[in-house]
User: What shape does this take?
Amino acid sequence: MNIKYNSGLCFVFGILFVLQSTAQETIEKLSFLDSYVVSNELYLSGTLLGGLSGIDRVGETYYLVADDAKNPRLYTAKISVKNRKITNIAFTNVITLHGVSADFGRKQVYDLEAIVVDTLRNTIFLTSEGSIRNSKSPFLFAVSETGKRIRTLNVPTRFSAKNKVGPYHNGAFEGLCKSIDGKGLWTAMELPLKIDGKRPGFVTAAYPVRITYFEKDSGNATMEFSYVLASLERPEKGRVNINGLTALLAYNSQQFLVVERSYQSGYAGDTNRVRIFTATTDENTTNTLSVSSLKEAEITPAKKALLFDFESVKHLLSSGMIDNIEGITFGPVLANGNRTLLLVSDNNFNAFGAQENQFILLEIHTKKQHE
Assistant: This one.
């Protein structure tokens, strides 16, 4: 990938972001406040709590998605924060998706990864990674508040499982967040498309993923930018060595929070590395929607900066490990006026060893820009 300015692709994309805001807060740093673990043996309406891969907040209610393809479902919860600590997490409801059993294994695979709740449309938007090795494409779709499927958005063919240079297996639509104006959705790939680059390894290289904007009303993809994943921090060891984007959150019209999580199976008891980066777009950021291969094009990706490394707080966690963080949303506002972030981990239903339903609370510290 040649990372350069390409004026023919940047102009329209840049104008969108620059004109939306000329003076806005940006995040200066994050600080750790607390962690909370929910039992792996908690059952709700006959379903085992786990696989928590996405989270969104509406008022005082949190919506979470369970990554369970055999029984795709959502949970609602109340998360109490007092004196800068998580004091209680109470799960209040299970929302089962209706009308999906006939599709499972035949048309589509509901490997749910992220969630956005749209109260104006009484709609919940969800992503599924599908199953690339089984020729089941990733997709972005909407359900009602009771779990009835409403519609599927128009995903470009480059993301199809039938595309031989498309997604890697288990590397598709992992992140999802609402746009700042509420009119659209940003969804992010966990890994590069095959045509764009390799899966991140220990070798330093460009590993670009696509972050695509979908209009809620039309369901069409109308804009896109690239974000370059980090390489692995440790030499490859064991059977699985991968780094990918697991969660996405728009902070303002130009700045996104991106969670990157690496997993290396050969480092027993210390398999995950999790970091939060900022991805910032400007007038030079390339709109990659019409770019067939990021590896071959001259493009300008979003500017990237490390914001928080969970290695710095592992000693503060009850288990001494940071787990498989896959969800991020805004939490409550603190008494000092600062906003918070709530992150949640996918315990994979403990299929790959001891993992947790881990919640992390962070405080946001901001500064003004463009004043």
The first helix runs from residue 7 to 20. The chain has one helix and 24 strands. The helical segments are 7-20.
